[in-house]
Amino acid sequence: MPVPSNEHTNQHYASFATTSRLVACLTSECLVPAYFVPSKNQQEDCIGLCLLLRPTSVKQEHDIPTKVTLQDILTVVPLRGLPVIDNSRVAVLNNVHCPLIDMVDGLDMLPHIYEVNTDGKDSKNSITQATKQTLSTVLSAGSSFGLLDGYDAVHMWDRFATDLNVNGKLKEQIGQELGSSILFQKYTYDNPKQLPTWNSSTIAWEQAVVEGHATHPMHKARKSYPPMPALFPGSYDLDHPKVRLVGIPRSSATVRGDYENLSVKLVDALLSAGGSCNVQELRSKYNNHVFIAIHELQLPNVEQKFDDLIIFPAQHSIHVEALASLRSVARPDILPGLSVKLCLGVKISSALRTVTPFTTYFGPGFSYDVVPKLTYDQSVLTVERELGTVAYAHEDSDVSKHCSSVIREAIEYDPEYKDDLFLPCGVLVEKIQRPDTDETLLTHLWDLDTEEKRINFLKRYVDFSLRAFLPPCLENGVAFEAHGQNTLARFDRKTGELKGFVIRDFGGVKVHKETLLKTTGCQLDVLPDSCVVADTLEEVFKLLYHTLFHCQYQRLIRVLGLHYNGVGWNLVHERLSELIPKDHVMWPMFMDREKVPGKCMVRMKIDELYRDYIYRPVPNLINYKPQKPIDA
């Protein structure tokens, strides 16, 4: 990958990491028209351009432009790999055939995103000149322009949102979240961690995240809101936070499952940290309260919203280890075999990372009553149950969600499994703690130096993961949210061989109640308006597609070098065709259609949605084949 001509290298790459994700979302969500402009010279490995037009450049969504002016252009991105194109929809610009781009990924792009200007000022590097030469082939003769490298997501969003007439306050808020993403991304690049090894703890792997979500433009955002103090890079150690002790009056606490027994050791550690009183004396004194550990950063929200809590002094605190999500934490020496999900009123990627009463109500019932009856291969999948929860009982769920917690199984912290390495699947495809490389932890540690090795790794990964997550979907109408943060891969520490998967976090599962009842006899126990409930089986299937196929497989296949040649997707297609019965309703959606419903990150932000999803048709990568522009 070429190094940008920018003395602030990490700043450049941080901007690119966020902005490339914004470009990808604007394209796949059809928020702007995007076309592939082929390069005739393919200098510096640039095969062509992703040309994003402003939404005002066409009257209707499906209109195909016949000419492009400088004023029509939102941004130009040079490409090193061919995006997914639609050769049936081609804009002919100055006799250059430019197919519509259906989907573009950050890994298709060279690390340069350009703003077009009319004053002729250019960034000085060879990629800029190659980009300018290719762009000039589709513009009207005599157009004079310059290209400035490093166009960032905040300014691109501002221009796009202005064109789209996004509400001013919302426009500013989303811009701030994009800015936060860039700031925290640069901080991560500036402060690399030691690379994890086969002997590293799961926590070391959880904290090895460099860029995070592969397609979400707020992938590194950490945006707090009053009364919480503003979060800036380095202002708080999010990997090693403190938790504080709070008591909720029993009359104000909703407890589900075995929360109080499971939390005893954690609460005792917090009580004893104060040092001044006997633990049993304090328990007796506050016997009419339910104790809960609170993330230290969350205290201002708790103090503002709840006036009957006992907030213990600051000395009643201990350090914990944050997992990849930042709000879930572990202390294996105190809670072996368990982890704790906490409230954190910070926008991380898409939403405030609080824990809603919908989640605290649903988890234990689903864990104890439904999970044991689901159809799945227990030799390849471990489902970590949510064994106990507590939430402040308040009629407004937007208030209650600020004081709640979940205790769940975590076999990765159980000494019985010390010979196995558990790591979040998303970390496999993370870079090796630097931005200017294509090497990932997977390619670094697994020695996958031949295509045969990479194919064999992928075969086992796809086989095991489909055997893990497909049966509950096919048989029971249940889709786990199997993206790379919720899914752990389990490897033999000695051989490096994949042994299976672990799934955690039930906040985003989808369940078709009628199918579940028919196949297990279980009635789904949820609060009214729970987003877990799926009205149709297709809702269940599209969650599985987004989390497993789009979020996991797409990135894994790309970093293994098995995307453009179609080998990786053909492997997925073949295994699916063996596992999905041809008469099952899933078959046509996954195996026949050219398009599937794709989750729309930016449209959801614009509509201020989190618990409700927006989907748009996106290319079905299960059926991906090697491609080329129609006139190539």
Short description:
Helix content is 33%, strand content 22%.
Written overview of the protein:
The protein is of the alpha+beta class and 632 residues long. The chain folds into three domains: 9-165, no CATH class; 226-413, no CATH class; 415-623, Transferase(Phosphotransferase), domain 1, CATH 1.10.510.40. 33% of the residues lie in helices and 22% in strands. The chain is built from 19 helices and 28 strands. The strands form nine sheets. Strands 10-20-21-16-15-14 form a six-stranded antiparallel sheet. A hairpin with a 7-residue loop joins strand 15 (328-330) and strand 16 (338-342). The radius of gyration is 25 Å and the shape is globular. The protein starts with 8 loop residues before the first helix and ends in a 13-residue tail after the last strand.
Structural class computed from helices and strand pairing: alpha+beta
Query: How do the strands line up in the largest sheet?
Result: 10-20-21-16-15-14
Q: How many helical stretches?
A: 19
Query: Which architecture of the largest domain per CATH?
Result: Orthogonal Bundle
Total domains, how many? Answer: 3
Ends distance = 25 Å
The CATH class of the largest domain is Mainly Alpha
